[in-house]
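ok so for the tutorial part 2 we go from a plain amino acid sequence to predicted structure tokens. step 1 is just haveing the sequence, like this:
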Amino acid sequence: MSTLETDGRRTAAAARRRAREKQIIDATRELFDERGVRDAQIEDIAKAVGINRAIVYRHFTGKEEVFALTLVGYLDELRAELADAAASTTDPEDRLAALVGAFVEYGVAHPAFVDCAQTLMRRTGPDLLDEMSESALFRLGRAISSCLALLTQVLEDGVAAGAFTVEDPVLLANTLYASGLGALQLARVGILVKEAAPGIPTVGQISADQVRDYLVASAIALARR
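step 2 — the prediction. this is what the tokens look like for a chain of 225 residues:
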């Protein structure tokens, strides 16, 4: 067999592998959107693709890696929304408000994104290194950092314009992302817990619009201080 034929077969095999991996990720995304993260099992993903679960593990190290690479798809979509928001105005506060608002709107429209992101954030770095390949971690890190880079740039531009006084834009961007995920869960539940009287709990309602307005106001306040 010639070197050319060998290279051709390797190229074809790699293409088939990439196509299969895309099928598995697409099926996972569909299950996430239909059922949520907790109800999506490897058996269900394999069935949706029409393969045995063992084949899933030939392509991925485990469920965490499948979920992480599915999150990459959400993050790529989110980045496009954030980029549009950041480009919608030149005023520093309006840009930050638009970007935070776009984040909330995407999270409300895609609750599985919030679940998936929170699930992975609860894992420690060493755990993820044990359960995922380096290439998958790289892709996940790149997807997250590309979103955070847009927020960081908006904060840095605001500092340069004299509108913000942020000492560490990278830290603030990461903090806003993490706290935003928590607030999106609050918007999803739609209730607030409070005391009606000392020791007497009660609940109130909160809307996604209220959560968005709070996150926008908080981001601007943190950027100004």
